[in-house]
Amino acid sequence: MSFLSPWFLIGLLGVAIPLVIHLSRRQKAEKVLFSTVRLLKRTPKKMIFFQRIQQWLLLLVRAAIIALLAVAFARPFIPQTVLDRTGWSARSVVILLDTSMSMQYADTFAQAKTTVLDILGSLHAGDEAGLVTFSESTGQVKELTTDLSQLASFVRQLDSPGFNSTSYLPAIRLADQMLQGARHSNKTVYLVSDYRQRAVAAFDTRWRLSSGVDFEGIKIGDENTTNLAVTAVKFPAQLVRDQEEHVIIARVRNQGSQSLSEARVSLAIDEKNVETQQVDLSGGSEAIVTFRTHFRKRGIHRGSVTVDDDFFAPDNTFYFAVNDLQPVSVLAVLDAAANSRVTDEIRWLESALGKRGRSPFHLDLIRSAELTDGALQPYQVIVLLNIGELALARLTAVSAYLQRGGSLLIAPAARVAAPIFNRIFQGLSPARLGQKRFTANGDALSITGINRRHPIIKSLGLNDSGDFGTARFQGYWSSIPAEDSDVILRFDNGEAALLEKKVGRGRVLLFTSSLNTQWNNLPRQGLYVPLVHEMLRYLAQHEEQKPSYTVGEPVRLMLPAGNAVRITAPHGAESILTSAVGDDVFFRTTGQPGFYAVLGRQAQEFLAVNVSASESDLTSTAPLRIGTAPVNEATRIPLVQGAETEANAAHAEKSQLFWWWILLVVLLLGLGETLLANRTYR
């Protein structure tokens, strides 16, 4: 639009008409003036001069009122005219702000915030902008808006970066999706980051932005960096009781562009400093530090190795947990009809659990006639291997034990009779036994049906195509699973091999073959020992935690259904996790390095969480690789011109509100004109 709009012409006429009227009235008034000469000659000259000023001032006020009204009504056309003459076109931009751990170095994040504010300040009224914070995944998201001041206020209030790693692709993908609904065809993605070399190298260069979207990478931070980090610690995951001295080995590495020649490294156990060593780094980029220490008390010990480094603190300490918990208590029941005191099944079980004192399990033996409620109390798991019969009193004690939260492992074999078993364990067993089945002509069954979602199978770590190796079964019990039981393993003929059922607060596992070599060769396979261990750990509702986790890594906790655990983070925040239907709960708020205390289980535990060693590498690179990779060189598809013009006009209408002030001035001038006209001599 031009200044010669209809409203502008009306404004010019509003100024011209009063002038014409004034001149015509002046000619008609000449006769009156001549006839009043005598009267004017008698009037003082000062009064005549003052009256002329009042008349001209009144004319100017009236002309200003009309002109301002014209400007107020012509206001929608003026901004667009100016923008057309300057060549400006409305823009839609999304700003990606890196909040990964490396942005904590020196004042890098403060520089990044200033850069984002500068980008927002360079935009015009009618432009729209969005903002996304990101690290290894996207964080806070501000959708596209024309309220740039609100975005700027949000940027100023951003906290310091977190401790996560850097990944560019998720954030760029999100920005591209946000710009699909943009109002303007001029679209740009700004990526503000320190561009650490490892993150840039991991970027998938095959991905492209949508057609018409530009990309601009803005690098922040110092080229020369200094950083020492403890990147790894090797330590005993479990303590061996008869080994007094334990070795802890730490790796200290130069992760900046400038090297340091020496450093002090300290070992702390349970928050007490144990030893400090001076490390020589002059010969290379890393050094190995060896500590020797003792663990005096039982329980989970919190260990940490720290390097003195004032340049970059987040990766100075590596945290780990050493487990010296009481072993899982297991009670194996001896069959009264067995010929020897220790049967073949018990010997294989003892061999799988290992020597007492060095094993995570504590195994005791008891005759079936000695089963009482008091005798079962100290144990977490009861094992019934090839038990032919139990007296009613013994069965009552076992049932009460399960109701309280104890667990039971049953492996029937040759001495078991199906009718007696089904009668004794009715309501307790995961399945009713049918017939003893034996393969013929040298054939054997294998286990092929595997419930990979079950905690026992997850803990075994079988690969996707993994099976039970060369384990072959010549004998087994056919079974009819109970309605409330789950089948964990199946033979290749479809029969159940391992089943589970929950009884009260406890669990029952039924293995439909033998756990010795009587009906299969499983005990001679490498999988036998870990399978027995994981079954007993699962039944004891005990899961060994990893000695350390990485920031952002979810932690799977095992707890009885309906129970809850309270987790206290290093900074004091508390989380309560519950499970009403399952045994698995996941703690996902591991966003800070340090120790997380887990309360509410059998004993207090600690989760050790560390930063990623890759994020400690402060070597930077130019953003050119990312800057050229995601841009789509295909022909841009502009928005429909009419729709874009309408959008620009809508934004101009929304942002240009000063015309209300013009109308207010007109109102004030109108009041002033009334007062002045009443005081002016005619």
Describe this structure in words.
The protein is an alpha/beta fold and 682 residues long. The chain has five domains: 6-75 and 658-679, no CATH class; 90-223 and 620-647, Rossmann fold; 230-325, Immunoglobulins (Immunoglobulin-like, Sandwich), CATH 2.60.40; 328-539, Class I glutamine amidotransferase (GATase) domain (Rossmann fold, 3-Layer(aba) Sandwich), CATH 3.40.50.880; 549-610, Immunoglobulin-like, CATH 2.60.40. Helices cover 31% and strands 28% of the residues. The protein has 18 helices and 29 strands. The longest helix has 30 residues, at 6-35. The relative contact order is 0.12.
Short description:
It contains 18 helices and 29 strands.
Q: According to CATH, what is the class of the largest domain? A: Alpha Beta
- What general outline do the C-alpha atoms trace? elongated
Side by side, the strands of the main sheet go 14-13-15-16-22-21-20-18
Average pLDDT score? 81
Q: Tags for this entry?
A:
682 residues; 29 strands; alpha/beta; five-stranded mixed beta sheet; eight-stranded mixed beta sheet; 31% helix; disordered N terminus; Rossmann fold
Q: In terms of topology, how is this protein built?
A:
Blueprint: H1 6-35, H2 37-42, H3 45-74, H4 77-86, E1 91-98, H5 108-122, E2 128-134, E3 138-145, H6 148-156, H7 169-180, E4 186-193, H8 197-201, E5 213-219, E6 228-234, E7 246-254, E8 262-269, E9 272-280, E10 286-293, E11 299-307, E12 317-324, E13 328-334, H9 344-353, E14 361-367, H10 373-376, E15 381-385, H11 392-403, E16 407-411, H12 418-424, E17 431-438, E18 447-450, H13 455-460, E19 475-481, E20 485-491, E21 496-503, E22 506-511, H14 528-539, E23 549-550, E24 555-558, E25 564-568, E26 574-578, E27 584-587, E28 594-599, E29 605-610, H15 613-616, H16 624-628, H17 641-655, H18 659-679
Parallel strand pairs: 1-2, 1-4, 4-5, 13-14, 13-15, 15-16, 16-22, 23-29
Antiparallel strand pairs: 2-3, 6-7, 7-10, 8-9, 8-11, 11-12, 17-19, 18-20, 20-21, 21-22, 24-27, 25-26, 25-28, 28-29
